[in-house]
Amino acid sequence: MLEKHNIQFTRGDGLNDPRDLDICKCDLSIIDALSIRFNIPQSIIAPKLQAQAKWIKSIGVCSLGQTGDNPKLWEDYASTKNWMGKKRENGICIGLDQNLLIDCLIKQKHLISAFVVNYVKDVEKTIPWELSFGSQKEIWEFLYRVYATKDIKWQDENEVRIVYADALTEVYKRIIIDKSCFKYVIFGKSISKKQKFELEELISTYPNIQKIYR
User: Is 52 exposed, middle or buried (0-12, 13-18, 19+ CB in 10 A)?
Assistant: First the structure.
């Protein structure tokens, strides 16, 4: 990320939470009611729902923490276990200026939105499907809840995410951004001298980035 000064969007079916961008979030009872009322066979309904589910899974997400000192993120994503099974905080945290980042992506004509994730007790069937074919405001509410609702077990991550609204054909999409979007790099407590030297050399190519040591 620092070498290429880019960010990565991950398609919904590549996220580590299988219920993240998934149609299981949607309450489809309205579909069942309409199929009975108008005698529409499942052979017609099922392919349309499958196409919608596939589209939801094709959306890209860039998952970010709201702060650089989140212990859950350091433990899960910036630490490795040593031979004794103890975790060593040997990764880094890269801080971005969200306003500059969004401006940069918009200038490049990328269709993106930013959301603070909302955590709920059980994500399944929490979003009324009828919102998806309502007014413009209701459709926006539907998309917001699909993109920004996660199970409460993830709440310690305190996530903010940038959503790439066009369907991704590959699992990952990496976009080069301006180096001014990079705000700071936090070095993990157990980072090696070699890593530290290489990172400091790389960071020196950035105009206004701050080095922080845990």
Answer: middle
